Amino acid sequence: MSSSLNLSTLEFDVTDHVATVTLNRPERMNSFTEQMAAELAEVWATVRDDDDIRVAVLRGSGDRGFCSGIDVAEGTWWRHKPIFNQEDPGELLGPKAHRVWKPVIGALHGIVAGGAMYFVNECDFSICSESTVFFDPHANAGIVSSLEPMGMRALGVPYGEVMRWALLGSEERITAQTALRIGLVTEIVPDDQLTSRATQLACEIAARRPNGVQGTVRAMWEARDLPPSTAARHGKFYTDLGNAGAGRSDARTNRRSPRTR
C-alpha cells in the first residue's frame, strides 16, 4: 500500500511492521505546508488501514531540527473560507485526528518549535536527542498561542511550564533535560542513537499482540476527553473487545530480560 503514495514533503517506509514517517523538508526546518498536511492525511490513513503496520515512528530529516512549525513563508491556506468554517489544519497533522490507534513514537531532535507541538501532542510518547530544544515563537510575532499549549496540558505538562513556554518566546528554550523532567519526553539519548533507539522500542511493541496494543491506545486516548465514570465504561468495553479472539499468550513466558529507566 505504501508504494502507491506519491510524496514530496514526507518519506515513508515500512519494515518489520514498523512504519517510519519522516518530515522531509530539511531546507525549511521541516516546517509544514498545505502540501505536507495533505500528504500526512494519506500517510496516516495508510498507517491506520494497513494491517501489516503495527507501530509508527515519527521523525524529521536533516541535522537542524524535527520541525519549526508552519512555514511562515508560505503562510496560512485557509483564510479564504468563511470565518465560522475555518479550522486550524494543524489539528489534522497528527495521527489521532485520523483515528490511528496504533502506537506512534516521536523521535525528536534539534529544534522543536511552535506548531511542531501538534505532532508531539499526538504521539503516544516521545524520546529526544541530547541537543533537542523546545520553544514557542508565537509571542515574538505578537500572536495567540492556544492549540499547541492546550495539547501540552492534555499530555500532563504542568500549567506553569506550558505557560512559560508559550509566553516567553524564542528567547527561552526548554532543554532535553527539562523536557524529560516536565514530561514532554520519556527518554534522552545521544544524538547519533535517536533513530535506532526509537526503532528498537517500536519493534518491541510491534512484536506484541496488535489487538491488545491498539485497544490500550484507543482506551487511553479517548479517556482524556471523558468523565472518569464514562472513561471506565469505555475501558471495560475495549478490554472485552480487544481481549477476544486468538493470539493471547502467557505473560509469564512472553517476556524479555527486564531493564530499568
From TrEMBL:
<dbReference type="InterPro" id="IPR001753">
    <property type="entry name" value="Enoyl-CoA_hydra/iso"/>
</dbReference>
<feature type="region of interest" description="Disordered">
    <location>
        <begin position="232"/>
        <end position="261"/>
    </location>
</feature>
<dbReference type="Pfam" id="PF00378">
    <property type="entry name" value="ECH_1"/>
</dbReference>
<protein>
    <submittedName>
        <fullName>Enoyl-CoA hydratase</fullName>
    </submittedName>
</protein>
<dbReference type="InterPro" id="IPR029045">
    <property type="entry name" value="ClpP/crotonase-like_dom_sf"/>
</dbReference>
<dbReference type="GO" id="GO:0003824">
    <property type="term" value="F:catalytic activity"/>
</dbReference>
<comment type="similarity">
    <text>Belongs to the enoyl-CoA hydratase/isomerase family.</text>
</comment>
